[in-house]
């Protein structure tokens, strides 16, 4: 069994801390896979167009291709951690030597089961679950409005870097991480976004007082959009 993490070098500090915790607790080695060229190179190749749900070039260039190069032509089973209560397939390689297997789906394990397994193993949940429902780059375009606001609070320097990516277009075109508004415009609505989120969380808590915070947070954030998370980024 070999463990890997596709490292874009645009990760949250909490993600790296969680990987270190997994390695220490389970006594395993994790291969960190990276594309030969970084995000800025591929951003230039794609004409400055920021990745989006309709154009996920970052997933292809910085995750899928490095993984397939790592596996090579060896026969391999790819264990994919998609739960039974998720309506997505995750990454399925087009290479015939990589066979996908879904152990959680096959056993009917849902989110509550995974949280229990993590707690019982001593690994626990990543710290970003206080305000974010998935891993991925700090400027991931799948973030909801509330997650962007909280990124500004938790890691202002990373939020500011994401703003610079929006603004850095010499040809005059405008690209934004969230549809319809820039990050700075979104941040101007910070109080409104947080208030709406807190009302939704209170509603969830009232409906099911015993529901774990991580599950309630994901349910509330899912109300903001219908987009599926990045197929290869969800940790």
UniProtKB/TrEMBL annotation:
Superkingdom of the organism of origin: Bacteria
Pfam families with a match to the protein in the record: PAPS_reduct
Coiled coil: none
An annotated Gene Ontology molecular function: catalytic activity
Every Phosphoadenosine phosphosulphate reductase domain range: 3-88
Protein name from the UniProt record: Phosphoadenosine phosphosulphate reductase domain-containing protein
């Amino acid at each position: 069994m070999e463990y890997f993490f596709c490292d874009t070098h645009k990760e949250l500090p909490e993600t790296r801390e969680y990987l270190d915790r997994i390695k220490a607790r389970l006594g395993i080695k994790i291969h960190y896979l990276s594309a030969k060229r970084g995000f800025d190179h591929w951003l230039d190749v794609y004409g400055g167009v920021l990745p989006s749900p309709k154009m996920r070039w970052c997933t292809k260039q910085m995750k899928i291709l490095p993984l397939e190069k790592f596996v090579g032509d060896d026969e391999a089973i790819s264990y994919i951690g998609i739960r039974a209560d998720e309506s997505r397939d995750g990454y399925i390689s087009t290479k015939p030597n990589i066979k996908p297997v879904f152990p959680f789906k096959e056993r009917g394990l849902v989110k509550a089961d995974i949280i229990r397994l993590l707690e019982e193993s001593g690994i626990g949940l990543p710290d970003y679950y206080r305000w974010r429902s998935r891993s991925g780059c700090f400027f991931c375009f799948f973030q909801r409005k509330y997650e962007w606001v909280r990124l500004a609070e938790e890691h202002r320097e990373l939020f500011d870097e994401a703003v610079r990516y929006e603004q850095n277009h010499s040809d005059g075109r405008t690209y934004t991480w969230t549809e319809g508004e820039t990050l700075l415009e979104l941040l101007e609505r910070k109080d409104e976004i947080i208030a709406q989120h807190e009302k939704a969380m209170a509603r969830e808590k009232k409906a099911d007082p015993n529901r774990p915070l991580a599950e309630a947070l994901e349910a509330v954030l899912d109300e903001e959009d219908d987009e599926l998370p990045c197929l290869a980024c969800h940790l």
